[in-house]
Amino acid sequence: MTFSGTIARVRAGQLPQGLVLKLVVLALLGVLVAAPLMRIVLETLAPDAIGAWTDVIASRLSRNLLWVPLSNTLILGFGTAVICVAAGGFLAWLVVMTDVPFRRTIAVMATLPFMIPGFATALAWTTLFRNNRLGGQSGFLESLGLTIPDWLSWGIVPSLVVLSAHYYSLAFAIIAAALASINSDLVEAAQMAGARRARILSGIVLPVALPALLSAGALSFAEAVSNFAIPAILGLPVRMQTMATRLYGLIEIGQSGRGFVIAILLIAVSAFFLWLGMRVINGRRTFATITGKGGRAKRMPLGAARWPLFAFAAAICSTTTIIPVLVLIISSLSTSSSQLFSSWTLHYWLGASNPDFAQGQAGIVHNPFILDAIGTTVTLGLVVAVTGTIVGLLVAYTLARYRTGLASGAIEQLSFVPLLLPGIGFAAAYIALFGTPIGPFPALYGTLTLLVIAATASLIPFAVQSGRAVIQQVSGDLEESARLTGAGFLRRLAAITVPLAARGIVAGALLIFVKIMRELALVVVLFTPATPVLAVLAYRYASEGFAQFANAIAVVILAISALATILANILQNRSQPWLKS
Amino acid sequence: MIGIDALTKDFGEGPVVDAVSLSVPQGAFLVLVGPSGCGKSTMLRMLAGLEKPTSGTITFGDVKVSDGESGWTIAPSRRDTGLVFQSYALWPHMTVAGNVDWPLKVAGLDKAERSTRVAEVLGLLGIEQLARRYPNEISGGQQQRVAIARMIAPKPKIMLFDEPLSNLDAKLRVEMRSELMRVHRATGATSVYVTHDQVEAMTMASHVAVLNRGRIQQFGTPRDLVADPATAFVATFVGTPPANLIEVEPAQDGIAFAGEILPASFPLDGPAQAMFLPETLRVSREAGPRTIALEFAEASPVAGRVMVTGARAGLRLTAVVDDVPGFMPGDTLYFAIPEVPAALFSVDGERLA
Ligand SMILES: Nc1ncnc2c1ncn2[C@@H]1O[C@H](COP(=O)(O)OP(=O)(O)OP(=O)(O)O)[C@@H](O)[C@H]1O
Ligand SMILES: [Mg+2]
Hints:
Chain A is mostly helical.
């Protein structure tokens, strides 16, 4: 038994501090996570609201309310899962197991699409593929004289393509990590057994990679069914509804009872698949690779297929990263989508209000709505970065300090729940809880406070994860060894804790900030004109036909989040140079 | 049976296996020993056909299976060899029984035959009760035995082992050693076996090849190697405990043994290294005519005798003696040196006499 261990135990025995802390954290998580969820369920079960269930599930309306949106949602979910696993798996195989040229570049490129907000990619799609079915500006391709059929402009197909383009990087990251842990000895052992290539693939490689493929598929599925922005931009104009857009519509027109029912069902669908995916990776046959020493990675030579495969991979990566961003930038600099390369203007950025242009809307730097929204969004981002970091550190610290016990178990579970919840469903739960006054507290609906609380709650899992990384760096041996040298508390704080923790904390906070900047699903439901947020504004502009403004705002969001991400990465790497080898 | 001629492998940064030539007859048990990174696994992998030689040839019987010059190799599956990988390479998605069964299935055996054979080898290695577990549910030593079972199940003509017992405890290791020898004799297969363990090498081998930096230092029977090492490296690498090497130098009135002048008892022209086997040294508390004083370092019993080590800066000697009075760390011991060394090596390790 170590000396410091004894001290810790004695101290814990003397003060019931641990329990107080645990209860405080538990209460906090209860209010932030459990209460809204319970509230939304109870709300729909109230005697005057229970009818909403029958309306949604079994009535003349249910076809439009539930079944059609549900089947669209499932089509998008399964379709996206399949495409993501295929594309992500292909790229992961190429990068991890073969000698394809520029492996590192492909690996980096394949993780970028997830950094671009989904609505930005969707806006880029409409800029290129929009046809004249709905009137208004036509897209670039149509202006070149091509006929763009409706199915390529609107609805399921473009939603599917854009969702996949956005989420395949998740699948890539999961599958690449799994493949990297497969030892090439496994394949060689099968060769020794005399198996042919096809038999090795079907008997060894695929089964070993299967859990990763399934969990990548489940994650892509859950993300796709929860996504609001993409089907809203590409599907709503032609009345294609998903659960998420239906939920938004119902809340928007004040039928919140039905909206809540849809939200509960959406949460159930998405959480079920995520849970399934996690079960698969945590099951009995998880293939954390078995190895003694001497395992080696041998890359498969691609021979003549090397460059063609590279070209294919490069095409996938650039059409999902560089091209959408370029389209958005160029489009925000052109008078209309049909004249991307012929008629350029800085009006959407710098222009003053001019009745000939965009119905008198001024360019970004003069536009009071947009400036206002930038201010609100950045404020929201900063505030949530602070609140989220505090909650994250608090939970992570509690869990690190008190690993066992009922309360700790509950804290651990609760802090993980928001990961299973689609943002838009979570937002609905928040309306259910805070939409009406609770006791002495006023109704929070429409206030920035509600946005802050909801956003903080939805980011708890992420914040706890960053918090854990920080706590791990700081606590334990390092601090104890400093204590053994006899340094006082303040001295330890200044010499050990702060330098170790500061960069990690700032990096984590920046990443929270980035997530808030791009968040649409959560805020679109909680949005009111009093709390204009950039992403929502972009969405509004897009649906009202001001494509250039929408695109310009998307570029602003991209720029802000890119800067913050880069800064966070630099801080994180700098903060742990000893982790690099 | 296995003929290796001028075998070389270069991954692009200089040879890793360098012009190795040797041959062993059918039924031989060839042990490859050498320090970490000397190219043992690479040799095995070339024998298995997983790696193409840069130059040189390998023949099994009358068949040339690899030819570096022409780039010709027979596929691993058609060499009738089995390999126990250093990493075990167990397929994580199959149970223990499934792992052993799969190669038999690929070979096209019918179901009844397969299940008897699987039960047989699992029994042979004492892991039948693990048959339904997955590889991540058993210990490292058990995984190692599964890897061996999987390799021997299809009865290959040539068995290749890459440190197959390294994860077992001492007792199990001794048992498995005899078990493997029994399998080897019963099948009449030719085995190539990589190990770091001197005892394993000396007890199992019919032939030993000592490798260092990809080159063969010496190839022969275990007895040859201990009694008559070709280089200083071999001398310090084989035998338990390994032989003592003392730096010697002609001095005015005798020979300097690591600085200590003793009467000249053998001819010496210049600086060299003299080898003395541990069992030829004597230890006592009193100085004698041919003794070197060292500080007592450690003692441990081996096979009814005692292994004593004494050390001082720049010299460390080990003797195996019948009995030692209880020494304490810090005591001074006198090691009596025989008149004639068992072998003499040049300063850079070449055998002189
Ligand atoms: N695929 C490869 N590419 C480049 N170098 C390699 C490759 N495989 C092995 N080497 C190098 O060849 C040398 C010999 O490796 P090998 O695995 O044969 O050593 P070993 O004798 O088996 O060592 P150990 O006892 O540690 O297993 C090492 O220096 C290693 O780094
Ligand atoms: Mg090796």
